[in-house]
Amino acid sequence: MSVLLIHGNKNQYTFANSIVAANNKSYKLFKKYLTDIYIIHSAESKKELINNTEWVEYLSKNNIREDIFVEKIIEITNQKDSIQKFVDYFESIIKGLSKPEQLIVDLSNGTALQKNVFSIAAYILDIKKQYLIDISKLFYDTENRKFFNQEKLAESYISAPDCTCFDSIAYLNITEIIRYKQVISEQAEKYIKIDEDYADEKFFTGNLEHSIELKLKEDITNKDNAIYRISAASIGTSIEEIIRIIFQKLELNKEYKDTTLAKKIEIIEEKIDERMDSNFDFKLLKLFNELMRHLRNSTTHKGNLLTDLEKFKAELSVKLAFPFMEFYTDIIYPELSSTNVSDNQLISNDNKSELIPENEYYYGLDGDNTGLMLEKIFLEFKDNQEALRDLSRSVQNAIKKISDKIQKITKHKKSVIFAGGDSILFKGFFKQHELEEIKEIYKKSTKRSDPSGSGLTCSIGYGRTLTETYLALKIAKTQPGKNSIFGFKLADKGISKR
């Protein structure tokens, strides 16, 4: 497939000319014409193009059909929310392409701000095929200011400058720096979440950024392989910091004092082995630890120059540092900090005192008696399809409102793991009154479709693992009348009941 991403335009002539030019460019580049045209409109450009339809006939004469258009209105402003909406949509287009290299980005249309956002997005994502109409060429020998023929457009549809050359001016590859900074920011967030009191965010992020800058600098200059050793040794300090804070949080430092990084990793292996779930890949943990230990030791050799093999190992150490840290923050720490269900205490919502947050909980919400309600509608309302539609719409609306509420509380889009039917799985720190508010949203949202007029109820189960959450939700739904909140809490941590 060959795809065009273009902004809408109040000027139908420029808009249509750009599409025809891009269509010809597509054939020249890929030996096929455009198969999809993604148009990002402003409300004004959409309105103008609806009111003025000459462009549709012009495109049709050039064998470009309307059915390949995918149109969306996004008001691109200098506000963060607006840019984020555009970025999310841009990303969804890229991910949906089987051949991203066959994407053309048009820079002829839109305001200066809109063109700027398009160009930056294409640059960051390394999309080379950016084109625009050169007005000076197009209008040089004609007074026509409307639709142009294909030959004239082909001559004036030129490639935008390749701005990656600025990377060499800046000495470092800016696109890589930006991507690494995003990865570092995400990793720092996970690091801080382990223990906010003992986390040193400034040191952790600063050290990682410095390490990466050293590596990227040497990638370009290629003058001294020893720089890779320095970078690997530096980034190893951040790995030590991840292990240190895990030890601190789990209070293992009280039992094992003044231990080296290698010894701490061995202790973690022992702790995982003691409580190992049959589904846990312990072999991966052992091999990953052993590889990182070996690579780290390879960076301690003295001397100004490294052999090519040692350079390779040092560079590999840097590249594997991020997945290694992610492995410990996302997999190992949750495994060590969770407890077996038998060690936990099941609690109900009879006691309304608040939970004191320590770690994230998983929460499962499920509508009560939705199946029975469907049966009732089938039997009592017979062929009334609208009653079924009302129930479906109201439950969907309830789930949507609850998802929005969850994301508002957590301030994180990824807090909702699953939302479908009459069920939601989410995670975060939620107080008793917040869970009650979530239940009330479900009830109010389904009030209109409930024949009794009171609204449908839902139950919530929570726990530190998905298994605990599943069991708690099952227990909540066995209560008389359902409409309950049940969960697991650590019996030895003094966490309040709900």
Please describe what this structure looks like.
The chain folds into 3 domains: 3-163, 3-Layer(aba) Sandwich (Rossmann fold); 168-337, no CATH class; 343-490, 2-Layer Sandwich (Alpha-Beta Plaits), CATH 3.30.70.270. It is built from 19 helices and 12 strands. It has helices at 12-30, 43-51, 54-61, 80-95, 112-124, 135-138, 150-156, 165-169, 174-194, 201-221, 226-249, 252-255, 261-274, 282-298, 308-337, 370-380, 385-410, 432-445, 466-476; strands at 3-7, 36-41, 69-73, 103-106, 130-133, 157-159, 344-348, 361-367, 416-420, 423-428, 458-463, 485-490. The strands form 2 sheets. It has a 6-stranded mixed β-sheet, with helices on both faces. Strand 11 (458-463), helix 19 and strand 12 form a beta-alpha-beta unit.
Features:
498 residues; alpha/beta; 6-stranded mixed β-sheet; 55% helix
Secondary structure blueprint with pairings:
Blueprint: E1 3-7, H1 12-30, E2 36-41, H2 43-51, H3 54-61, E3 69-73, H4 80-95, E4 103-106, H5 112-124, E5 130-133, H6 135-138, H7 150-156, E6 157-159, H8 165-169, H9 174-194, H10 201-221, H11 226-249, H12 252-255, H13 261-274, H14 282-298, H15 308-337, E7 344-348, E8 361-367, H16 370-380, H17 385-410, E9 416-420, E10 423-428, H18 432-445, E11 458-463, H19 466-476, E12 485-490
Parallel strand pairs: 1-2, 1-4, 2-3, 4-5, 11-12
Antiparallel strand pairs: 5-6, 7-12, 8-10, 8-11, 9-10
Helix pairs in contact: 1-3, 1-7, 9-10, 9-15, 10-11, 11-15, 13-14, 14-15, 17-18
